Amino acid sequence: MTFFSRVGANLDLMQEMFRQTGALDKALSGNVAVACSNASSLRQAVHRCASCDSVAACQRWLELGHEEALHDRTPPAFCPNSALQTQLKRIG
């Protein structure tokens, strides 16, 4: 797998993680500006996910949620963006 295909795959996981935890809805509603006070915060979140080594654990966690149609889940502890997801979920 090339570097860019790995980054792309990880970012697909990031989008699904944010969807299953309910953070994506908050981010899309414009509240992301509150949680990410500047572009650097969001860029750091993307970088953390793109370079994450917990891909297998992430995939398993997401598969469970997909199979059970789970939404608004608590972000898993292994996710480097769990704090951001939790912060986004509290907005609104």
Structure described in brief:
The chain has five helices and no strands. With 92 residues, the protein is mostly helical.
What key phrases describe this protein's structure?
mainly alpha; 92 residues; single chain
Radius of gyration: 13 Å
Number of domains: 1
| Strand proportion | under 5%
Helices, by number, come to 5
Low-confidence stretches: none
Q: What is the helix/strand order?
A: HHHHH
Portion of residues within helices: over 70%
Instruction: Please state the structural category.
Output: mainly alpha
- Overall pLDDT confidence: 80
Described by strand count, sense and barrel closure, the largest sheet is: none
Helices and strands, with pairings:
Layout: H1 3-20, H2 23-35, H3 39-50, H4 55-67, H5 82-90
